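Two proteins follow. First one:
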Amino acid sequence: MNCYDCHATDGAAVTAVAVCHGCSSGLCPAHLRVTRPELHRPNGVGAAHGHARVRRVWCVTCYAAQASGMPVASAV
């Protein structure tokens, strides 16, 4: 799989190393952004337990939308 952004901007065939969490586009290291949100597991009524940091990989477009607070439809 090749990086979608490299192909879209200059037609280059650069190998993808990840897939966007939002739109499932292939991404090279130059075009990916990584976030580490905290995941909460609710435990019935009351406090949430099992807080853990997860890794989410985004393309530049989905990262900008997600960072601005706009909802990003997840492909997962």
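Second one, unrelated to the first:
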Amino acid sequence: MPPSVAAPRSLRRLFSTSSFFPPPAAAAAAAAQPRVEPEPNTNLFVSGLSKRTTTEKLREAFSQFGEVVHARVVSDRISGYSKGFGFVRYATLEDAAKGIEGMNGKYLDGWVIFAEYARPRPPPASPPNNGFPSYGHQ
């Protein structure tokens, strides 16, 4: 009988039948921080949209709850299909609150959608300069 050879640790993990792997320390630390709710504003983030949902359908669905100033389904540049989310801007905060109350968890084009106040876009990160001064800026 040949002597048994232990497989390297990485191969044991690859061929293991257990699907549990502890999360990396950074991911566990990020998950431990509570999620901050966005401040009420007139811009709503809508997720869970069907690939067939158009901007017109989104505007029509949300206009039942107030004056929609702008609606947009974000689509893929190549395929043209929806990425599954969009934005709706109302004229007033009251209309936005009614829009969330009326559409959050409801069906649109056969899919359950979720509406919440949109978070402001974070400022763009400056490219690293590797310790060298940038030209043209003091």
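SUMMARY FIELD: The domain at 43-117 is CATH 3.30.70.330 (Alpha-Beta Plaits). The beta strands are 43-47, 68-75, 82-90, 107-108, 111-112, 114-117.
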